[in-house]
């Protein structure tokens, strides 16, 4: 957190004529003493800072250290702002507001009004709003734990419904197939594991720190065993075409006519295809493979049995 604060102070000094220690302390919600220590750290890094006492006193950089308004092109500024907005949406990171303000100050006012109109993020996954809020809170905690290299503790329920208390060294956050996961070294399993955020409960950051273990990236990747797959062909009612565009690429549509839509795609066994098919009810027919038809019928029979009981 100190490093981010130092960078934030430097950005303010690069774009402001002069600021007071009180202003910086209030902005970063720390004491004036902490701000003065931060200023000393910046000076030790070789960045020239001048401090003035008195009523109009304050802290500023020497003139030749100010940011040139042409340091970034307008397209570069737009790219930076879009990236910052994405980070802010995902992690509710207050420091991004500071960076956006700095870009505003080094931009032409008329041009700045036109910046960052191309991307607007409303929702970053396909889950319910309530779950999205919960997931965002977990993302914020995990990002903090990764930055500070602190172990997290939580209850985790796996695919088969087993719940185990875990302590994990978090390493990486990933968005995949509309859901968030994080990779880390699990102390319980003594190995690298991937955890789905929606299956995590009672997440908390501990005081224990760790030195990140560097492992082959193959151990950190998830989500599907790409060799463990089959080719699936499904036929849907023509009325489902709009929905199907949410799930399949143009190349996976092998026939579209006035009555039906047929798709052909690779099915990875890590995904629950039966639930997907059930979601279309009587509007879908399994063409192949044969074992999938049998599996689907078996699931339908279980559902009917529960309804009758």
From TrEMBL:
Transcription regulation found in the keyword field: yes
Annotated Pfam families: HTH_11, WCX, WYL
Matching SUPFAM superfamilies: Winged helix' DNA-binding domain (SSF46785)
Alphabetical UniProt keywords: Transcription, Transcription regulation
Domain HTH deoR-type: residue ranges: 2-57
Gene3D superfamilies: Winged helix-like DNA-binding domain superfamily/Winged helix DNA-binding domain
Coiled-coil region(s): none
Protein known as: YafY family protein
Species of origin: Clostridium ganghwense
